[in-house]
Amino acid sequence: MSARGCFITFEGPDGSGKSTQAGRLADRLRATGLGVLSVREPGGTDTGERIRQLVQHTPSQESLCAEAETLLFAASRAQLTRQLVLPALAAGTWVVCDRYADSTAVYQGYGRGMDLDAIRAINRMATADTEPDLTLLVDVTVETGQRRRAARHAGEAAAYDRMENQARDFHERVRAGYLAWARQFPARIRTVDGERDADAVAQEIWTMTKAQLL
Ligand code: TYD
To answer: Of 52, 105, 148, 152, which is most buried, counting CB atoms within 10 Å of its CB?
Structure first.
């Protein structure tokens, strides 16, 4: 039987560049000969992608309450974990996931003010107690995140999604929340300065990953 694969997650505020970095790390791991599955949250499964549509673009004028939002993200995670993540890890495939349980602690806990103990319990069920072996937090200021999002969406119609449209103080709580959350799990969550150019960030992430997992 092959050894269990490693589970790596990426976290960071909107516009941090974490999706680019997740793709680059997955490519670099594949180049060493490892089997790597790349997935994202919310999404990754048919059910998860439908949930992504729901949370990013509310279907009607009614606002999605924080509780429903929390459970929808958790539902996407529960499906992804059982359908793809756990089978891949068991088969020896590495999994690189763009956002995971920490996003709910930070966005719904620190951002929306939902009770963190309740979120921990929900996350334990959603993840079947699966902890990433390594989490890379790509940290940027709120200004940088906003600037990059504006550049990404330049020229698009109806560009910003529901989460990105939150007020500035929400994004401030998310950024500070990530840093506070990371301090509680120093062995698992490694914070990377995402203000630098993508090559420099990718290099630091590669060095950290090699040191911790390869
Ligand atoms: P993301 O995939 O990073 O967005 P994009 O591909 O548009 O850059 O994340 C989607 C949004 O959902 C993002 O604003 C963060 C939010 N989110 C939560 O609030 N809680 C969660 O548990 C997850 C997974 C995402």
So the answer is: 105
Apex 53 CA angle, 173 and 162, nearest 5: 35
Q: Give 129 Cα–ligand 1 centroid separation in angstroms.
A: 21
- What is the whole-number distance in angstroms between the Cα of residue 12 and the centre of ligand 1? 9
Contact 115, 27 (CB under 8 A): no
pLDDT of residue 60: 66
Q: Is the CB of 123 under 6 A from ligand 1?
A: no
Q: Is 102 in the pocket of ligand 1 (CB under 6 A)?
A: no
Q: Is 14 in the pocket of ligand 1 (CB under 6 A)?
A: yes
pLDDT at 152 over 70: yes
What is the residue with the minimal CA distance to atom 17 of ligand 1? 103
Which residue's CA is the closest to the ligand 1 atom numbered 12?
163
Q: Where are the domains of the chain?
A: 7-213
CB 145 within 8 A of CB 18: no
Give the closest residue to 100 by CA, choosing from 33, 161, 188.
188
Q: Decide: 103 in ligand 1 pocket, CB within 6 A.
A: yes
CATH annotation of 7-213 = 3.40.50.300
Check whether 62 has a pLDDT greater than 70.
yes
Question: What's the confidence (pLDDT) of residue 153?
Answer: 86
Longest dimension (CA), the chain: 52
Mean of the pLDDT values across residues 142-168? 85
